[in-house]
Design brief:
Two copies of one chain form a homodimer.
Chain A lengths: L1 H22 L11 H18 L2 E6 L6 E6 L7 E7 L19 E3 L2 E3 L7 H16 L6 E7 L7 H9 L8 E4 L3 E2 L6 E3 L1 E2 L1 E10 L5 E2 L10 H10 L22 H7 L6 H8 L12 H6 L3 E10 L8 E2 L2 E10 L5 H15 L5 E10 L2 E2 L5 H14 L4 E3 L7 H9 L3 E3 L3 E2 L10 E3 H21 L1
Parallel strand pairs in A: 3-6, 3-7, 7-19, 8-20, 9-18
Antiparallel strand pairs in A: 1-2, 2-6, 4-5, 5-21, 10-17, 11-15, 11-16, 12-14, 13-15
Helix pairs in contact in A: 1-3, 1-12, 2-3, 3-12, 4-11, 10-12
Chain lengths: ~450, ~450
């Protein structure tokens, strides 16, 4: 531990500078306009892996963005950790809400503000630096493999193919991922579950062209109004989702399990204050921790139609659209839920409009075991580094690939995230506390140490 | 009539060329980015009035865009016609739906395609050319005043002030406006009423920032979902508007009046085919003609919130907004309806969001008399020019200033429109039939003739 701290202390500024370099690439995978930047980011990551001492480093092409692979095999008889992360980031808009430029990282009050600071550049880069530390101090106790992809924010479609085609190369005993949050530095936690995802886009078409709302208003269905009616009907008065069959496969937890889950620190007044809302909203009969952890949800991620510019335009639009995603919990199946949504939405659309439902991407929910060697190693590492045993929590987000690792590679995942829920992931002013960044670099070598020892 | 036709025939190409020049100005009053173009349009109109023989032509400044005034007083004892029109146009977007550029007028199948072709450049310019014709042929039978404004598409706020401040200058016996439609060249019609307007913008705010839809989804109200619920609730299952008091002042027509109204040519199959819809939508208990003519409506003109770019972004937006307008009928009051909407919308907003309602602009509904000298003159003019007596109809659109003319100047209006409902007003591919343009120029001098004779 002393040695770890010493190395981190001596390299603090460089660790930060390198992360800043990485954050300056606008590697937005969703927007084809940033293609060149995404590709440059992959090369940068590969270079840094090589510098840190990784071997067989390769920028592996896929049908989409490449996957950066690298490894260090110290002894074939020792256990192997597969580190997963992603170098792509969410779009940065709405840009006008950023206090400083999303791709020019800026420190304010001990926090790094930049798109990707926490999700996931800041977090996967901790592993690169922890690896460097173990290499340079001769303390790497097990084999390590890196797989850093560039399409996590758009569904990891090509990673799925890559994993299937590279089973041998990716052989490992555990997947280690830092792409989630902990409660706080004071209340460290480990996520033991992730929600799945079904993401769709709907388009409602009324008349075949935009119409004058005076000449035609009142006589022809307005697709924006109809879209609102359709979306409004997707939740009932108790905020239950109304899609038939939606809850059929939802795993229900026992009273005891729910009680344990609700023991995690949670202060409703602070939660509301942080979000700036007077009242919380959610499915009746469940707490906030349950609503974001063990219950499925349906959210409108975007909606648009008609005239959205300045001033007033009296148009009756031809089309209105929305992006809608559902978070899923064990044992819901993404493909099944996507189909249920599609069928339902098409069925409830009235005859005076036509609707199309397009799939974006999906992912399966997962629960990670808390009795595995890997979980125990993570627990011990955090306890030593933070001075406190981590609380097991259920994460609301999704890392669709985790279920795939389990299915294809037959290995479980440990979700050792060092972010915070308040890090504004996917939002303007995304941040990562510098303290968490260094704490992560210090904790990761301990994980490897205990994982090797316990194996 | 022979003389009129001869003059039009001899000047056909020039009449078209001049209109094209006028249509090339992107005089979009709603978008401040086009300010320079709007101002140039005013100067162009003033120049053309002067060339046609108008006197005291002035580009009158206002707090917004100027009003172009010009007059020709032939004899103070003769009646005076005040011609009103507007040189501003609606925004042209969505641009990608235009077959040819909105500000490069193009002829296809005998129609002029351009933003403003019908609304209202093509239509008010007929009056400028008809005036030229009467001047050049020495047949102007009465006094004429022109008032062409540049803010009709954004609520005519400054025209209201101008009219109040220029009562003496604007003194006239009738207001003549071509800014409406007729059924067809085969079934000429005259509008005898216009709907009023209340235009508002609503903004629903949930959390104080965009959130990760996984981390927070299900635990905090999504303003897009709430906006949909609020909008959905504004119409009941019979498509009646649910705002309390909304229908209180609505003038109901007698069975006989409704029957007469429904005698106008209307073919539902053709109407649906033209719009490309399988089924019409509207307030139960009323026909299409009634729904667009004598019943008030509420339309979403635009809606937006969250991520609307390419691909998928799993965001729970902080805000969602909509532009909503209501068309009003006699005896509804725009200010009253605006207030009712505001009160209702604020009242129904649940506690977990905050809403703001901003007024755009409004206008009062009007009914024009069918027993006046002016109406009879218009009827005779059309009968002579088209060979058929015009059918009186009720227009669904709004020209907010008409009610003001009545109130401030104490004079009634004749709505002698030569457009068609299918001219794509406010839509991509706005058009004006060349035949209608020339027919208008031929009919207008007859109106002046009969108005002078009957007065």
């Amino acid at each position: 531990m002393q040695e770890i701290k010493k190395y981190v202390d001596e390299n603090k500024q460089r660790f930060l500078d390198e992360l800043f370099e990485l954050l300056r690439f606008p590697s937005i995978s969703a927007d084809p306009g940033f293609k060149g930047d995404v590709l440059k980011t992959a090369d940068f990551v590969a270079g840094k892996l090589r510098e840190a001492g990784a071997e067989k480093v390769e920028v592996c092409p896929t049908a989409g963005y490449p996957i950066v692979y690298g490894e260090k095999i110290v002894d074939a008889s020792k256990p192997t950790v597969l580190v997963y992360g992603h170098y792509d980031v969410q779009p940065a808009d709405p840009l006008e809400l950023w206090k400083t430029s999303p791709f020019e990282p800026t420190i304010r009050e001990g926090k790094i503000f930049a798109r990707g600071a926490c999700d996931d550049k800041g977090q996967f880069y901790m592993h690169v630096k922890a690896f460097e530390l173990m290499q340079k101090t001769g303390t790497l106790p097990c084999n390590i493999k890196f797989m850093i992809e560039g399409e996590e924010e758009v569904g990891s479609e090509n990673l799925g193919i890559f994993v299937k085609e590279n089973k041998e190369r990716l052989k490992a005993d555990v997947v280690l991922i830092s792409d989630t949050a902990m409660i706080s530095l004071e209340d460290p936690s480990l996520e033991t579950g992730l929600r799945g995802l079904s993401y769709l886009e709907v388009e409602v078409t009324g008349p075949n062209r935009d119409l004058h709302s005076g000449v035609y208003g009142g006589a022809v269905a307005n697709p924006a109004t109809i879209l609102c009616k359709l979306i409004a009907s997707l939740h009932d008065e108790n905020n239950h989702i109304t899609i038939p069959g939606f809850y059929d496969d939802v795993q229900s937890l026992s009273e005891a399990e729910r009680e344990k889950l609700n023991e995690a620190p949670y202060n409703e007044a602070e939660y509301k204050e942080d979000l700036g809302v007077e009242e919380l909203w959610g499915e009746q009969g469940y707490t906030t921790i349950e609503r974001t952890g063990i219950r499925p949800t349906l959210e409108v991620n975007g909606i648009w139609g008609g005239y959205t510019g300045q001033g007033a335009k009296t148009v009756l639009p031809s089309k209105a659209s929305a992006k809608i995603s559902m978070r899923l919990v064990p044992n819901q199946k993404s493909s099944n839920i996507t189909q249920l949504f599609k069928d339902h939405f098409e069925r409830i659309a009235p005859k005076y409009v036509s609707v199309t439902v397009t799939e974006h991407h999906g992912g399966e929910p997962v629960v990670t075991p808390t009795d595995s060697i890997a979980y125990k190693a993570a627990e011990k590492a955090i306890e030593q580094s933070f001075g406190k045993k981590p609380i097991p929590t259920r994460g609301g987000g999704s890392i669709p690939i985790v279920a795939l690792f389990e299915e294809v590679l037959g290995i479980k995942t440990v979700l050792m995230g060092f972010g915070l829920d308040s890090d504004n992931l996917h939002s303007p002013n995304e941040k990562f506390d510098i303290a968490n960044y260094y704490k992560g670099i210090e904790t990761i070598p301990l994980f490897h140490k205990y994982f090797a020892e316990l194996s």
